[in-house]
Specification:
By secondary structure, the chain is of the alpha/beta class. The chain is built from nine helices and seven strands; from the N terminus they run αααβααβααββαββαβ. The chain is globular and about 50 Å long. The chain binds zinc ion (ZN).
Length: 236
């Protein structure tokens, strides 16, 4: 964390009481982003299930599937979705960082050391970043990096702006995002276990596009995977 970020965090603590991003209860000293109660009852996702569900993403990639981790089962109709909304749309980069940090600590504890060498946040086009003020994926990766010691790379870049994915079907999403992500300095990634970082994984089309861009770039990583906060629950 930079000195400036620490200072801003310190000042925002002085100015007001912070509340839990899920249940809105006042946070106690030591609680960050969400309260202990919500942390305990978080509907955690199964990494085994995710590995099977998203195996297709990496089927044609340049490297075998690596880490497939999401913190919780994301359902937009439950209060758990609040924390993603707040981290993404509510001018709250600190929350995104804190959630990444909390998940990073948990992953580290659960796996006895997270099996990745570099975190690559899903890029955001500069125009969108200017409107939103930050890229939540970078903030989540920053928190993950602080908790795990895994470095964050800036090799994934947005080549051109794409419209929002929210109201599009699977095929439309794929067409929408194709060719919009590029890779800087691909050979920096040779031999590394890559974890692509995003806020939510739904169909997996965004992560797939990143994996395809890495594959086409000439990079030769050791494995390719992802870490997200949420994995959207499939509706039958
Ligand atoms: Zn709470």
């Amino acid at each position: 964390m930079t000195t400036l970020q620490r200072m801003l965090d310190y000042l925002s603590d002085l100015v007001g009481v912070r509340s839990c991003a899920v249940c809105d209860a006042e946070l106690m000293p030591g609680e960050k982003g969400i309260c202990i109660g919500c942390m305990t009852s978080l509907p955690r996702a199964s990494s085994h299930h995710l590995a099977t569900r998203y195996a297709d993403i990496f089927a044609n990639a340049v490297a075998p599937q690596g880490l497939t981790e999401a913190w919780f089962d994301y359902d937009p109709t439950t209060p758990w979705a609040n924390m993603i909304r707040q981290a993404k749309y509510n001018n709250n980069p600190r929350l995104a960082r804190e959630l990444g940090h909390a998940f990073g600590l948990e992953l580290q504890h659960r796996t006895g050391g997270v099996q990745a060498d570099v975190l690559l946040p899903v890029p955001m086009h500069w125009r969108k970043r200017m409107t939103r003020g930050y890229n939540q994926s970078i903030e989540i990766a920053r928190g993950l990096s602080e908790a795990t010691g895994i470095c964050m790379g800036d090799n994934l870049v947005a080549l051109r702006s794409h419209s929002t994915q929210t109201h599009k079907g699977d095929a439309a999403r794929k067409a929408n995002i194709r060719g919009k992500i590029g890779v800087d300095a691909p050979h920096e990634l040779d031999g590394l276990r890559i974890a692509i970082v995003d806020d939510i994984i739904t169909t997996g089309s965004t992560i797939a596009e990143c994996a395809a861009a890495i594959s086409l770039s000439g990079a030769r990583p050791r494995s390719l995977g992802f870490i997200t906060l949420g994995a959207t629950v499939l509706r039958k």
